[in-house]
Amino acid sequence: MASTGQTVKSILTSPVHPEVNYLNATKGFSSWFFTLDHKRIGVMYMVSILTAFFLGGVFAMLIRTELLTPGELMFNSATYNKVFTLHGAIMVFLVLIPGIPAALGNFVLPLMLGAKDVAFPRLNLLSYHLYVIGLVMALLVLGLGGVDTGWTFYTPYSINSQTPVVLMTSAAFILGFSSIFTGLNFIVTIHKMRPPTMTWFKMPLLLWALYSTAVIQLVATPVLGITLLLLIVERVMHIGIFNPALGGDPVLFQHFFWFYSHPAVYIMILPAMGVISELVSTFSRKHIFGYRFIAYSSIAIAIFSFIVWGHHMFTSGQSNLMNMVFSALTFSVSIPSAVKMFNWLTTMYKGSINLATPMIYTLSFMFIFAIAGLTGLPLATLATDIHLHDTYFVVAHFHYTMMGSTLFAFIAGLHYWWPKMTGRMYNQKLARFAAWFVSIGFNVTFFSQFPLGSLGMPRRYHLYEAMPDWQIYHQISTLGAYMQMIGFLIAAYALISSLSKGKLAPRNPWGGATLEWETSTPPITFNFEDTPEAGDPYDVESWQWSDEEGGYVKVRPSVADEDHAE
Amino acid sequence: MSHHDHPSHVHHHFENETQQFDSDKMGMWLFLVTEIMIFAGLFCAYVIYRTHNPEIFHYGHQFLDKNMGALNTLILLTSSLTMAWGVRAAQLSQKKTLLTMLGLTMLCAFGFLVIKYFEYSAKIHHGTLYGDRYVWQTEEHGGEHGAGGDGAEMHSLAEAAQDANAVHQDAMAGGAQLTDASMKLPSSQYAPAPAGPEGFDINEPAEAKAEEATHKFEQPAKAHLFFSIYFIMTGLHGIHVVIGIICIFVIFVLSAKGAYNSTYYTPVDLVGLYWHLVDLIWIYLFPLLYLVD
Amino acid sequence: MNFASATAGSLHLALLEGRGQTFWLPEQASSAAGGVDLSFYIIYWIMVFFFVLLMGLTFMFVVKYHKGVHPKAEHTPHHNLPMELSWILIPLALVIVIFWYGFKGYMHLTSPPANAYQIRVVGKQWTWQFIYPNGGISGGKLMDEQGNDIPESFLHVPVDTDVVLIMESEDVLHSFYIPQFRVKQDVVPGRYTKVWFKATREGTYNIFCTEYCGKDHSSMLSKVVVESRANFDIYLDKLKDRSPYSPAENGEYYYGVFGCVQCHDSKDKVTITGPTFVDAFGGQVSLESGETVPMDENYVRESILEPNAKIHAGFQGVMPTFKGKIKDEQINDIIAFLKTISNNVPEDVKEALRKVPEPSGEGAGGESMSVEDGAAEEGAAAEDAAADAAEGIQE
Predict the structure, then answer these.
(1) ipTM of model
(2) What is the reported pTM?
(3) Which chains touch C (3+ CB pairs under 8 A)?
(4) Which of A326, A488, C136, C343 has the fewest CB atoms within 10 Å, i.e. is most exposed?
(5) Taking all residues of chain C, what is their mean pLDDT, rounded to a whole number?
(6) What would the 3-class secondary structure string for A231-249 be?
């Protein structure tokens, strides 16, 4: 411990553990389900998303177990197709897209701004209710036997499929609006509710990331909405826009779909990068390096994300010119991603690195994100993508991005803000052990899929009897999946058991310098007793460890040092 | 907790009413952005189909009644004026004017829907409908008025497509060299099958007009796609008009109760913004669908 | 190609058979494979370099600046423009080079030589059908009961020859993929797509469908047989001339080639997607409409050409029409085959159908007439086509 021997005195006067906080202020189901408090909505989102994650995880386990053998093991191809469709649809629409913005973002964003709530609390609640409706509809689809189109709903198969596609696409449509409303709320909140002292360049980087994300949510999601609507109309009324049997163009659907769904990848990864930017600085006890470049790179990624969708269609038969343009543009995204990576790394330089649980996940994130980003290169390159397209190489790549990066950042953030959310500390040893288990399991699962794919295994294959050589890769992958499962269960145990057994959390257990650490633990209903003064969000030296408190205390106002002021 | 002395309509989490008003207004603008993106998707589909198959637009638009379209444009423009006037009235606390203007706006919106109803029912009557419900035929294209339910039409259309496809495949057999141009299937292949649920009445004016029209252009294959796009775009717009009417009705009732005055008129302003967007979209739809030439 | 093989050979513990196979990539069997693999390995080493750099530094920092050994963070500058620019500009330069390499290789992959030998490929749920310039069709069953390959059903191509496949789909999206050739192309309903390659090594390689297409997506397989020009010609002739076979044998062949077998069982009396044909012919069929009709020649013929005219009770009208794709004599052969698997048909009739007809054409009356007519026309067309093809290949 960085104890200095002398007592450190906090300049914050508000009580750390007030008797009434947002958790116990009111009681009963409706006081939660119809609350307007962004923190409660965030917590409810968190619970719902983790439930969906569990469900999607069960499907993942079924897939991995089925693939242990080249032939049929547990179920037939029709069932397998439904299982991977539900796995994909649940993970994408119900876990990854809402994950960080809706759960962590909702909780943290107004706190970081020093605001009392988001700009439109009712809209926020509506967004959550839409999410619940979407979740229920997805469960209904499950009850009706599931859909078999793949989460991408490609036409014309999705037009012909005999499964409840309309219900599933309606669920995605509704979830889309849930996402739009969250994004809208965040943009207005960041624009209009920042305290006067917090200029744009004094905002925590997570807010920059959430802001960029919200822009994508707002602009891209409606296009998904209209695409899914057209698909529904196509199935119900046979309008023929996407149906080749009626003269329509099935590839147009892919353009529409990826115009949303590629930016959607950045809806997932941008807030993840924001979380990592916060955590790297806090746990290295260092000011973030290259603040402006990280902020700008978020905006750059948001913009680039709209012009690269065609790389999902390199083999679809679109013109060579289009493929060339999309390939070139796709590489542009790699630059801002690299910028972030190098800046995080430099932040750690000469720091004092605390390997607490969130930091383990953060380091795993960096390891995984490096692989995720780098393996994007051969997929953006036209000549090599032709060979790798729609193989397990792609499966591995996007799991490294979507699960390894986004989800790890989400879990890291969950462990980081957990004490603030619940007021309890979890068992560090156990949680850290789980973190290692999950990280290693993840790499075992998905790294083996890279060679599997580059050797030619197509994705969405139930049987691979033609190539028995591939079995060993699948077996390794399945082994890793079981490791992850065990890891996640341990992590879940560590967190849940902290609710009853955990120590009371201090005001600031990690030493982050953003405003959410200045309020009580857990926060009071309207967040702050007094509107806090916004200083430099990365002046981590303004917080010092106090043995007495068992956490960090604020010793002076956070100020921008001359080095940062430009 | 430091609480300001808020007027009743200002929510606790805002510092003051300016902040609340600015936030509300920005939120509405952002919502309109999403609305625009929704329609942008449809406009994209329009552009793509029009680029690839200009003939179906030249053919299809003749079936639309330009006069009705123009009248509707005029009605919506008027309604925009009354709506703007209403917002101004709310700002000036002129309750009576506000109620009159909202009433007029709703009246215009209803008028728009009534005209749209006549346009739609004419199309339903003649079978110039979307996708596989398109059963319009010209005299040159065979006179048999075969009976056929939906299923049969759908079947026959798909079959016609496959027939043509098969013919082309036969032509391909034997190693015929393919040029890039022939990579696209011949346009004849998706010609709708000659079948109609009912015979058409030559005496009807719209019918006569359409009859005339079909002499101007040969009926292209995929003509039904024009009507798919027409119905989807105008249909979605129509839904927005209905939502608009509901919103205007709500603020009509509330303003009758005296909810709005010069200090608080945000809902009127926001509904006004929404209504202008609905008008604006129609301003684009009208020339794109009705005035193709 | 050599670069890739060399690096792979020295650095990977993979099975190397001198065929360009490495830990990462399958054997190289086409002219394009070398270039693709070169691009892959250039990118691969760039990836390895950056990964080692990033993770090496991370690891070093964690070890060196861990709280335990480095309790107080040192003050370092918060930004450094030259550093920022260096990690923008260096990766930028690298990706431009990568893009350019990839683009050049891609242009090669997608520009078929003008005189390439053309074979048509039809993808349908869940088979591949190959139609050669002489009208011969292959496809259908890939394995016999013992699990041995049936090479006649595969795609055959001559070695060291530019081949272009003109592909179409009858139902949903598919994608045609041969890993050893490093080629892949989606097959899209309503338009033609093409893919070309020059196979450089004789042998048999897997064909996969890589665009999800429904239930049996993972069984939508075939193989490509790369063989010498002479063997290829023999194969083509054999494929074309069906006269040495009985109507029942030909029927079974077409039953496979046209994909009937995908949905209609002909062995175990089980329902797949459509009704079984075991013991069906000569019996009665209950329709969705409630009527009952005899399962005779007319019903089979109508069901092939207009599948939705009379739908079997308990099934959905999902069968596509074969009108214009199947010839009358092929329908006749399929009917013959259906007769031989039905116990409603007398044994002597079945026996007759299992016999190879006399070349004189006396035996089966009307049926054989239509066969001969068709064959004569086709023969002429085939000769033309073969001549065209031969010209193409001589280039």
Answers:
(1) 0.90
(2) 0.83
(3) A, B
(4) C343
(5) 81
(6) HHHHHHHCCCCCCHHHCCC
